[in-house]
Amino acid sequence: MSPQADAEQRGARRAVTVFPVLVLLAGVVGLLTPGTFKGGGEAVPYLLGVVMFCMGVTMTPQDFKGVARRPWAVALGLVAHYVIMPGLGWVVAHALDLSPQLAAGVILVGCAPSGTASNVVTYLARGDVALSVSVATVSTVLAPLVTPPLTLLLAGEYLPVEAGAMVTDILKTVLLPVLAGLVVRLVASRLVTRALPVLPWLSAVTIAVIVAVVVAGSADAIKSAAAMVMLAVVLHNGLGLALGYGAGRLARLGEPASRAMAFEVGMQNSGLAASLATAHFSPLAALPAAVFSVWHNVSGAVAAACFTYRDRRRAAGSSR
């Protein structure tokens, strides 16, 4: 690994480790001082655009070539992601008898593309990073076509869903910034390479601000709904990680690829879900996405640690 790539990985590892704490602190600030972020909801789509631009800058043409080299594995990852998590969101909402706003929010999280930290967590878990990057990239590109109709299908029984307007919002806040970032990477590669270690931190801070704004917007309702939302998020994320890993094992993709599948299925772009929920539903509907932003990074880091611990035990056992 080159020194620059090594620095990039170290920066990403630190960011994904500190990120949950940063987002948790942002949520506390938003809860205790909601007036500080009054009117901030209008800025959420632009903040998300910054996160997605950073994601686009980290992409290379090699990421897309990986899709062509392993179409079966990538297709399986996409199907698993866009079937398991939306379905689990609907099941969890029904099982816990959530209010319409919270139910729509949980389902919307499930319908979002893969999370921006899933690649780094896959790397920490010694999983198949190339597969993780390919699935995350394609799920993000396909989000304008997949997320709105899935949300309409599954959340339409709870709240009205304007799928057409949602498509437009995803194009503006996700696809265009990602493409812009990719173009910048191509035309200014040397400058971008120097900035790569900083990008995970910029994304982490921006998502933390989004969480603070979302929490501030529904501060009055959090005290009564927090426990139920936390339960819904833990179930949704935990089952997603387990079923994603199980899908990889069932398809006989191998251990590293199955680990990648776990994180690509169980970790969501909760920033996008928060932005869409704020714009199309209500601040309360964005609460599950805000909690998911914290929890899926905590659970992802714990799962990665468990995988690596298991590898060390196996290595120790085989050396005896």
Structure overview:
There is one protein chain. With about 325 residues, this protein is mainly alpha-helical. The chain has 14 helices and no strands. The protein has helices spanning about 5-30, 45-60, 60-70, 70-95, 100-110, 120-125, 130-155, 165-185, 190-195, 200-215, 220-250, 255-265, 270-280, 285-320. α5 crosses α14 (about 285-320), α8 (about 165-185) crosses α9 (about 190-195) and α10 crosses α14 (about 285-320). It is globular, with a radius of gyration of 19 Å. The mean pLDDT is about 85.
| Mean pLDDT, all residues | 84
How far the N terminus sits from the C terminus, by CA atoms, comes to 31 Å
Order of helices and strands: HHHHHHHHHHHHHH
The CATH architecture term is Up-down Bundle
- The coarse overall form would be globular
Strand content: under 5%
Radius of gyration: 19 Å
- Overall helicity: over 70%
Give the low-pLDDT segments.
none
For the sheet with most strands, the description reads: none
- Number of continuous helical runs: 14
The total number of structural domains is: 1
Determine the structural class based on helices, strands and strand pairing: mainly alpha
> How many strand elements?
0
Q: Output the CATH topology.
A: Na+/H+ antiporter like fold
CATH class: Mainly Alpha
List keywords for this structure.
Na+/H+ antiporter like fold; mainly alpha; 0% strand; 82% helix; globular; single chain; 320 residues; 14 helices
Question: What's the structural blueprint in terms of helices and strands?
Answer:
Blueprint lengths: L2 H30 L11 H15 L2 H9 L1 H25 L4 H12 L6 H7 L4 H27 L7 H25 L1 H7 L3 H19 L1 H32 L4 H12 L3 H11 L6 H32 L2
Helix pairs in contact: 1-10, 1-14, 2-8, 2-10, 3-7, 4-5, 4-7, 4-11, 4-12, 5-7, 5-13, 5-14, 6-7, 6-12, 6-14, 7-8, 7-12, 8-9, 10-13, 10-14, 11-12, 11-14, 13-14
